[in-house]
Structures are given as C-alpha cells and as structure tokens.
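QA checklist item 7 of 12: single-chain prediction sanity check.
[x] sequence parsed
[x] length recorded as 223
[x] structure emitted
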Amino acid sequence: MLNQATKQKCGLNTMDNRSDGTTLGVLYDLYGHQSDLPWKLTVHFKNFPEDELLHCLNKEAVESHFMSVIKEADAMKHRSQAINSMQRKDHKTLWAGFMNDKFDQFWSVNKKLMENSGEDTFKHIPFRIYKVDKSSSDQQQQHVTIQKLFKPSEDSGENLTLRHLLDVAVPELTGKGEMLNYHVVTQGIRPVLETPVVWMSEHLSYPDNFLHICLVPQVDNES
C-alpha cells in the first residue's frame, strides 16, 4: 500500500481497481479463474470514474460501507435483532479484526451474527448472484448482480438447497436448462446444487455475511 506522501509525490490520488465495489475474491471467481497465479491486475490512480464506481475517499468510508452491508445481512437473517443488541465497541472490534486479519478478534463478534438456532434461526439468506454476460467480449466482460429474498427452509422445516435458490434467482436459466452452460462458483469452489443453502450461509459466507455466488459461462473445452 502506498502512503499519502508517496501518492502526493507521484501525483496520485485515490486508488481504483476498476471494480464496482465487488469483493476481489468474487472478481477472481468471475474473471480470473482461468488465469495463472498470481493474478495480474491493473491499478489506476487517476481519472476516477465517478459515474461507474463507489468512491471511498478514506478508511472511514470503507468501514461505514462494510458495516452497512453487515447490518443489511442481519436484517435478513435476524430482523436486525443481533446487530442492534451490540454496542459500538463490538462494531469496532468486528471491523478491527477484519482490517488487521485477526480471525479470533473478528469471530468473537461475528459468531453472534451467525447464530442459527432456537429463536435466532435465519429468516432469509443474504446472497448476491453475479452472472457473467455471455454476449460481452473477453476484453470487456460484464456481469449483472441479482439479489432477492429467499427463505432457507419450507414451512414444513425441510431445508432448501442451492438448486432451489437458483430456481428463484435465475428462473430464466433453470427453467430452460441453461444452467448446464454455467459453472456455479463461490469462494473458489463449485458446490453441488443439492447443498443446503443454510449450510452454505453458515460456512461459505464472506466477511460481510453475504453469500457471493458467481455464474460463469463454460467454455467449449470444459465439461
């Protein structure tokens, strides 16, 4: 990371990674999964595209955005009861653990947001699906983001699966058999479609407590 003095000396301003605020791991699942590691990125420091990207001027703005997404996730899972029961120091502990890559510190707070038993069972599953536009060129690939309300189980108590979630989120693909032309990827892996979505939410969510699921078109030499 460049410090402010170096940026000023080089005539640089806010860093731009040409994403739309999407987590870097999601971008890799979408566009870099066939690339050799380490993944080579182009970093821009000038001419920030204000009309395309979320502009985070400082660390405080990033923290505010992160906590807003955490609150959105808990609104879906626990009707905001878990996050509202916390004190400001808990929010700071959560953020500090995330920022400093200290899992135990982060998890000491985040585990309360992942409670899924008794009266604290998940009401809905926080998720976002990213579908690569098959009509876009390899040089200018684009994706659409899909987010809907989805309950983790039937009224009978039967757990719903990733297949059910896709039926709700992208019926235009599942209803026409088009899913055979896509890989379903999250956290760098391809979960089977019969995986209970509540298990995925508990074990495969990102630090913002959302499941980020990528639909990547298969290429001709893939099965």
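[x] summary fact logged: Confidence is low (pLDDT under 50) at residues 1-20.
[ ] second reviewer sign-off
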